[in-house]
Amino acid sequence: MKPLKTLVALGLAGALLSTPALAQREGVNVGQNSVFTGLVSAEQMEATALQQYRQVLREAAQQNALAPANNPQLQRLRAIAERIIPHAIDWNPRAKDWKWEVNLIGSKQVNAWCMPGGKIAFYTGILNQLKLSDDEVAAVMGHEIAHALREHARERAGKNAATSLGANVLAQVLGVGAIGQQVIGGGAQLLSLSFSRENETEADLVGLELAARAGYDPRAAVTLWQKMNAAAQGAPPQWLSTHPSGNTRIAGIERNLPKVMPLYERAKQGG
Ligand SMILES: [Zn+2]
């Protein structure tokens, strides 16, 4: 036995355990945002998103398809968003300055998205065809908000910049904002953007946690994807074309449920 050595080891272990930076954060673990996000300015991304959002709303309004503020489904969506949004700031400090918006578009499309900067749209098709419960709406919304918080569109634009310009050019150009403008200005449609499998997994997990902290049952993500699977048997819904479902996805969600269920239980008790 070497008591001194043991004591030192115990002390060291104790110090490590009590260091906040090393303590395990409660909830899901998805690591840092991609380094590629740094190649494009967040401000520019959000400004482009705002432009495209306004255009979508304008077109919907012209077709009499933009739900008015007193629409019960829209009010339901906004109430759910109001509970989720306070938990968004933990994932991205910019989110506290975002001017969040939620709108409902009358369309058969099974679709929903959240653009950079917190601009959310749901289509009546996803609510009606899938007959979503509030918990399932929170699962969709949490997932889409997670894409915005983790800046997946910005990451994608950054990757495009890196690919199209090449490392040499990147190294010479210190004002990366200019690259961003070129890439974003190149007609990137934020609406139809499809993300990588890694981005999708991230959005699933962050979405689970957002919903749970807002007091929505995170297990609804499982029933949501089961409904999506069933809907895919017919004509593939819009959301499914950018969101491949399947058993792998559902298994990943189920594996992470134990990490967020305590958050949900607490949120429910807290009212
Ligand atoms: Zn997604």
TrEMBL record:
It comes from the Bacteria. Residues 76-254 form the Peptidase M48 domain. Coiled coil: none annotated. Pfam families: Peptidase_M48. PANTHER family: METALLOENDOPEPTIDASE OMA1 (PTHR22726), METALLOENDOPEPTIDASE OMA1, MITOCHONDRIAL (PTHR22726:SF1). Belongs to the peptidase M48 family. This is Lipoprotein.
